[in-house]
Design a protein that fits this description.
Layout: E1 2-6, H1 8-17, H2 24-34, E2 38-42, H3 52-61, E3 66-70, H4 74-83, E4 87-90, H5 106-122, E5 126-131, H6 135-144, E6 148-152, H7 154-158, H8 162-181, E7 185-189, H9 197-201, E8 206-211, H10 213-235
Parallel strand pairs: 1-2, 1-8, 2-3, 3-4, 4-5, 5-6, 6-7, 7-8
Helix pairs in contact: 2-3, 5-6
């Protein structure tokens, strides 16, 4: 199974203060060096973390695959068509949410999604829809012409009781099998971390897991000691 690393929260840290540090492009290159298979970045309509400039630089710099998460907003679509990343993943977007709160309602937005997917395919860009593991949404995703779906694992990640964890895990397993059956390729992500990723990684139909926040959070601790030592050397 492959790993896509979402670098949004490197940009979140940069935007908290302004300036150039930390640089999400540099983070992307280090992630590739560590062995990931793709770099994921979400260009939000409010530009709260990743900026347009980041996307253009990532396209030039990334040696694996650039997966651009995006809404179907016409301005964002225009950027994607100009940049031409390897893949786009359509996600729902609300201005007030801290992070993506659920899967895309493909049934409600089917016509618009299909139109944008056709534009992407004309530019040779692969397409994916971030959806909940629900049969009706999977069926509609297939009708849009999307190549992939990314199954939303957030409900599984947030579940606390063992029965609830099993229930959500079963939904993802069943959803992944059904996707494969009807000819959709399957990725998965959202809320995955070192404590819950193993069971998802066992699902053979899933090709790639997209993980960001937990990796960036872990990096703060796994790298902070060496950063302090480096600074001490410079000071001394």
């Amino acid at each position: 199974m492959k790993l896509g690393v979402n670098i949004d929260h490197v940009a979140t840290l940069r935007q908290a203060r302004g300036g150039n540090e930390p640089d999400p492009v540099k983070a992307a290159l280090l992630c590739e060096k560590a062995g990931c298979s793709s770099i994921v970045a979400h260009l939000r309509e409010d530009r709260r973390h990743i900026q347009d400039r980041d996307i253009y630089l990532l396209k030039k710099s990334v040696k694996t695959k650039l997966n651009l998460e995006m809404s179907i907003n016409k301005d964002i679509v225009a950027v994607a068509l100009k940049v031409r990343p390897y893949q786009v993943t359509f996600v729902p977007e609300k201005r007030k949410e801290l992070t993506t709160e659920g899967g895309l309602d493909v049934i409600k937005e089917s016509k618009k999604i299909k139109e944008v997917i056709n534009k992407m395919h004309c530019k040779g860009i692969k397409t994916s829809l971030f959806i909940d593991p629900v049969k009706s949404q999977i069926d509609e995703a297939k009708k849009t012409g999307a190549m992939f779906v990314e199954l939303h694992t957030g409900e599984y990640a947030n579940a606390k009781k063992q029965y609830a964890i099993k229930k959500e895990l079963d939904k993802i397993r069943s959803g992944a099998k059904y996707c494969k059956k009807i000819g959709l390729r399957v990725n998965a992500g959202h809320g995955l971390n070192s404590a819950n990723v193993k069971e998802i990684a066992k699902i053979k139909e899933i090709e790639e897991l997209n993980i960001g926040h937990s990796i960036i959070s872990r990096a703060v601790f796994s790298g902070i000691e060496s950063a302090v030592r480096e600074m001490l050397v410079l000071i001394r």
